């Protein structure tokens, strides 16, 4: 009988019915079967596992062994997975190439090209787009010295293509004034897990709704927590890769999760968030679950999904920093529409003034107030220094855009004295 990849219980039953021996094969089981072919044993069944089927001539499917094969004793070559952002500005694309030896810095990697007409980033008659390696992470899927490579995209003439937001962010973060302020970012990425065929949240009855929000946030239990294995697998994959992930939790809406990246300095924040999103896409792919970064995946009395961005500068973290934070908030209020227009598609469905959000059309701030545009923590107020939390960015925001805009607005942009005085009066700020 032919070897079968069994993604469901129905396939498992079919294999068992039509074959004499059918059991999931792990690397350890392979060795035990070869050493002791008469030994009988069944391993724990999981939903997505390569099944070994003994055929008439005794051949065994060794796909799992090959996937886990360590090639380092046999070659110095490694596999580099080049990752870039596609034409929608939120989709991640990737392809692999062999590198002759392990590398430690992106400058050691060659540039590469791809077909931009297939990603919505170039016309068919001039489709070549060039990838520039920018950041390296360890590959948790292939292991060994294999790597993931975050790239940005350019025309053959060396101009950044329109969807390359990293280029502009790198310019802002290389400004001497910005560098001297050592901008820290902590980004809270919320996401929703959907059932594959129906695109309905994981754990929800198909075509129906679970009980109202309340019992699900940071909860445990089969009736309250849906997708914990995916969250945990992603957590460990990020740690392995070298992503500065700092925590994770179940969110208010069932089937929704969050993880935090940071504190990260400057352009590193965007690199780490994009790589973490790639890992999450790969893990949900393997689990047979759909990842959604829609800011309001379910209409009605359900929380949306944001990407709250915590931000501080050296001056904010030092004595007298609270006055610096208030000045930053003042600048942010004056550029509210500029920020909103760059904070994610569909964000108007989320920023309604309900479900722990501020209304999209107005700017507000407060201490410990999750219904404001910008929140300042109680500890920051008490200590007179710390950070602010911009609660406006949507879950599908581009971290390069958001972090660069925050740095630009608070460190490089200067309002007129009249505008500053008016905004201070409106927000009751004394700076």
Automatic annotation (TrEMBL):
GO cellular component: chloroplast
Domain GS beta-grasp: 78-158
Known catalytic reactions: L-glutamate + NH4(+) + ATP = L-glutamine + ADP + phosphate + H(+)
Record bears the keyword Magnesium: no
UniProt KW keywords: ATP-binding, Chloroplast, Ligase, Nucleotide-binding, Plastid, Transit peptide
UniProt-listed SMART domains: Gln-synt_C
Record's subcellular location: Plastid, Chloroplast
EC class: ligase
Complex and partners: Homooctamer.
UniProt protein name: Glutamine synthetase
